Amino acid sequence: MGRLVILGGGESGIGTALLGKEKGYDVFVSDKGKIKEKYKQVLIHNEIEWEEEKHSEGKILNADVVMKSPGIPDKVPLVKQIRDKGILVVSEIEFASKFTQATIVGITGSNGKTTTASLAHHILKQELNVGLAGNIGDSFAKQVLEEGFENYVLEISSFQLDDIVDFKPHIGVITNITPDHLDRYDYQFEKYIASKFRIAMNQTKDDYLIYDADDEVIVNYLENNPVQSTLLPFSLTKQVENGAYLDDNKIIITINTNQIIMPTTNLTLEGKHNVKNAMAASTVSHLLRIRKQTIRESLESFQGVEHRLEQVLKINKVQYINDSKATNVNATYYALESMDAPTVWIVGGEDKGNNYEELFSFVNEKVKAIICLGVDNDKLMKTFGGMVDFIIETQFMSEAVKIAYKLTEAGDNVLLSPACASFDLFESYEDRGRQFKDAVRNL
């Protein structure tokens, strides 16, 4: 089959290595950092060659195909060298999709993709044999190797879409597009938008693209860059002929005159953005012929996603909420929008060129104190300093939570919704969220 070199020994890298080995490739895994012990053991057990804390060019530039971790930017000199040699560079989803005949639902977007993917999987698994992968859970490649599901719901980032060639989901979903990760796209929003739309790049009229018709960025892009796919928009504000819309607290989904109506009154997820996530997931389910009763019951039983507006504990009548997954301003917008009590807001981390303006009205209306939790908090202090009575900075989660505890009174909320990446102080947004929950439990 040839030589497969994998850059990055994380979940997607190890999964790809196992699948590649099974399919007869000569596999080599190279990680510039340290490989986690559990992954190392898998490589050793499967006799796959690997290296860590370096990239040996001699062992990499003789590849036939390179699978690079989505975390590695194209600007890295090694990646440029690989491309200059004409070696094919692919993402895990591109590589693994070659080895499965399954029906694929691919979900992308700046926000809401994890919730939409988890919710779609929660509904589909009631009646179908279906896996959940991509940016979430076990690696897609590993599941293709070990599980062989007939259907997959994949949460897909723009970075993974940047390295597809033939990948084609039968059903694509774009939840929304707001400025995020612009540091990876030369600070050009257009490039980031085009990257998201790669989800429909290989689709034909027999495939479907589900998207938010209230999102001007998506609508304008589609007008100027038509796709082949059959379009199924969803909207909270206008009626749509084919797709989903909201009418008097009911979701109405129509696909080729086949209509289903779902009440939203018992949705477990709160907030307008979650009605949209429910519309997208229900449209997917309707397309895959899941019974209306199953969809309705699943929407009512879905428990949400960890680190996404997750209610942690109530202490002295103060609600602590973990929204660590809010790694951009738009996600924090949803969080603050859904606050219905005076809020102490914990924000900060690695800023990706954020513009905080859209948050101003919520901060003025709902936020009583701000705790900046980052290595560099200058921008936050300058931006919000004049808007609240208390603005404090810290580099420790335990301290942030203790300060919040002191600043609250009965009926308040404490919200961790950072609007930034976590890598300045934490391993990941999950690590940040868990530290927050531990600190709350230790109060």
Automatic annotation (TrEMBL):
A GO CC term attached to the entry: cytoplasm
GO molecular function, one term: ATP binding
Mur ligase central domain sequence ranges: 107-284
Cross-referenced Pfam families: Mur_ligase_C, Mur_ligase_M, MurD_N
Keyword Transport found: no
Compartments reported by the entry: Cytoplasm
Keyword DNA repair among UniProt keywords: no
SUPFAM superfamilies listed in its UniProt record: MurCD N-terminal domain, MurD-like peptide ligases, catalytic domain, MurD-like peptide ligases, peptide-binding domain
Keywords: ATP-binding, Cell cycle, Cell division, Cell shape, Cell wall biogenesis/degradation, Cytoplasm, Ligase, Nucleotide-binding, Peptidoglycan synthesis
EC number per UniProt: 6.3.2.9
InterPro entries: Mur-like_cat_sf, Mur_ligase_C, Mur_ligase_C_dom_sf, Mur_ligase_cen, MurD
GO biological process: cell division; cell wall organization; peptidoglycan biosynthetic process; regulation of cell shape
Class of the enzyme per the UniProt entry, highest EC level: ligase
Reactions catalysed: UDP-N-acetyl-alpha-D-muramoyl-L-alanine + D-glutamate + ATP = UDP-N-acetyl-alpha-D-muramoyl-L-alanyl-D-glutamate + ADP + phosphate + H(+)
Every Mur ligase C-terminal domain range: 307-420
Coiled coil regions, renumbered to chain: none
Pathway terms, separated by semicolons: Cell wall biogenesis; peptidoglycan biosynthesis
Top-level taxonomic group: Bacteria
Residue positions binding ATP: G109, S110, N111, G112, K113, T114, T115
Primary localization class, coarse: cytoplasm
Bilayer-spanning residue ranges: none
NCBIfam families linked to this entry: murD
PANTHER family according to UniProt: UDP-N-ACETYLMURAMOYLALANINE--D-GLUTAMATE LIGASE
Function statement: Cell wall formation. Catalyzes the addition of glutamate to the nucleotide precursor UDP-N-acetylmuramoyl-L-alanine (UMA).
The protein's name in its UniProt record: UDP-N-acetylmuramoylalanine--D-glutamate ligase
Species this chain originates from: Flavivirga eckloniae
Gene coding for it: murD
